Predict the structure.
Amino acid sequence: MVQVLPVTFEHHRDALGIGQSAPRPSWKTTGDEKDWTQSSYELKITIHGPHAKEEKSETFKVKSSESVLVPWPCSPLKSRESATVQVRVTGAKGSDPSEWSVPSTVEIGLLGKDDWKSQVIAAPRTLSASNSLQPALFRKDFHLSKKVQSARLYITAYGIYEAFINGTKVGDHVLAPGWTSYKYHLNYQTFDVTDLVKKGDNVIGAEVGEGWFSGRLGFNGGWRCIYGDKLAVLAQLEITYDDSQAETIGSDKTWKTTHSAIQAAELYDGESYDERSEILGWSTPSFKDDSWSAVSELNFPTPKLQAPEGPPVRKVETVKPKSIFKTPAGKTVVDFGQNLVGWLRVHVSGPSGHTITFTHTEVLEHGEIATRPLRDCKAKDTLTLAGKSITWEPKFTFHGFRYVQIDNWPLGDPTLSDLEAIVIHTDMQRTGWFECSEPMVNQLHQNICWGMKGNFVSIPTDCPQRDERLGWTGDIQIFSPTANFLYDTFGMLSGWMKDLAVEQIKELNGVVGVVVPDILPRQYTKPQAAWSDAAIITPWDLYTAFGDRQILKDQLESMKEWLEKGVARQENGLWDPDGTQLGDWLDPDAPPDDAGKAKTDPHLVANAYLVHVTDLMSKICKILGLGDGAEHYGSEAARLKKLFQEEYVTPNGRLAPDTMTSISLAISFNLYSTPSQLLSAASRLSKIVRFSTFKIGTGFVGTPLILPSLTQTSQSQLAYRMLLGTKCPSWLYPITMGATTMWERWDSMLPDGSINPGSMTSFNHYALGSVGAWLHGTVGGISPKEPGWKVIRFEPIPGGTVKWAKCRHESPYGEVKCEWKLEGGRLQVVVQVPLNCTGEVKLPETDEVQKVGSGVHEFVVEGHDAGDWPPKPLANPFTDPEKDEFEGK
Ligand code: BGC
């Protein structure tokens, strides 16, 4: 019997205080039914007015097979209104409807400016020793005269905050309200605080640190107070009493403020906490705040106050230390065995006034913690004790680390049980898993996942450890197909895309910043192919993975502005050849101090991307029903493609220059004009790959494309050979060096264990992990055939020494799975199609595509032959060919 799982709304994990007034419901159906498709659904919706006064129920029956993001059938909800929604579905004609799903609730936040009755209140500016703003406390006593039925706290800050009611922290968010382009968008959070308030005396409080709002951001010393120079809070506690009467306690001049016990807290440099300054019970009713200062009221925020589209940053896991050891210099260092992002939690006791220092690094060099890659970032927390035992962790900073040097631990050294690492990231739902018979490939996949976790911290960032942590557009443009498979990224990335658009349109005259939020001085805001192209490609990738057309609609203006105004063109429409381009960033042959010096002409990269995004734009217009746009961009793409060919492709299909990256771009973006050109490109690519002895020759741009290009040209064994190689540069080389995350450079650590001398050397960068999409789609064998996974493509291509693989994805419709194993020449493939979906199965050695409905299906191919293994390198006759590491495997 088909069962319906609880309804979800829009892309929210938790639909409390959302910003969409007509929230589109989605549901998944489960059961063993074969070939089941939905023919209709019924939604039972009960609307509750604000303060639970009125209630209205209605049922809507719709003939449709849609079960993802269906239209909201009632009138739009207003601020504070909520709805309880149940669904039941019917399969083919004549079948009985399912049971109703258990009720789900959606509640609207504060949609308009008028909903806010509170004031933004600021603390006096107090500078720490390092010139940062010392965190501040805010508090307000209030009395509730009657029994409370429900209570909501709407809150945000200039800075990052934690809220408290009657001594208890509100909610489980960290680094709230998260980072947005604060000039235009400021997220507020909604918390259900019914259980925290009570009849009688109460206190609401907030602790605020500078975070992204006023803290130092950026390289070369960075910039302070980018968005403002005062720590402030905006809070509105709305109470509904048992008798349905309402009362609001908002931030205003009656609140008081003082310094926090945190002496300084900076995202890069770390946090210093002095327990002796802790004000016990400051957020409880019995506390007297006579000595606290008055707050000042600021103007109401000019940015749009909005409910977040994605989930908050949370503490998601804890990692226990693996070992504590002494370095050659006699320092005490703890090793967590995993490069991660977050902070330490310590349990310690010691004399009052005793200060312990914790310095965080990703790697060791010569046995000592390696701080050089952190550049201008201290990554140092200090804890000053008050003579008691304490469990402490920072709250207004974060670090990227595997190792922590601990200086001045009281009375000897810490033990393993004194320390743990707290892992934080945007708390997206995990949706993708992959495993195969090669342990090193599994480690690579794990490193890709850790690289993603550490760099999805409110915005998609480039690195979590040094003086950067910015939303580089090129990095996410390259990585998002992998990311969208592994986690439900939609809400987080769609929110970020809105920042990209608003900055581009309001400030940059169509140019898309290389970082979003754009905090860099204007000289960095140059149009950059592959980076700025995130304006078109990233919404497209979100559409492909989640099937939500709305993202294309929402971003359309930004896409057009980019193509019409932003791209710096020469007269014929191709990129201006004199502008600078980041190009195939971090080509392995680029010198350590010049990451853009790639083998592949950066203008070829730019022009290949231009044809691709113009073509995508035509597709997007078509999907949105914009016939004229589709035609215009379609013919423009064809015209640019012709110009590209004239400029770079010889009639016989050679490319100038011909590199792994250029050929992969031309194959992936369909830039050849004849099948014979494509054939000669395939053979050229094969030669280049073999001549490189299967080592990687691509930077950021070529890396996601090289293996798919080999696969697309029926050369999968070459792709496997590249994947499985362990010599530098390769995907597995870092693993031979003990990597537990993806590195920024192919050789962030050199084979002798020293760190790449380049000043830009992170050990936690997701871009080179973009190979994940090929692991999922080709080794794992699953990808969406149509946007949103309603039709699934199963096309596993076994190869190399991989003997089995298992891949699964929690799609918007339910779990998609593909598992295969190879024994002798017998290939067995088992696929799982969720209810209400269909699958198209293409097995190796046949062109036939088999269509299947929901359920589990098994296929066998006898006499499977993946091709010669290991493929041979092309040796230079004057040098010794490298010993083949796959001999005998
Ligand atoms: C970042 C990159 C980024 C690049 C572009 C670096 O500092 O870490 O990942 O894309 O700069 O300039």
In short: The first strand starts at residue 3 and ends at 4.
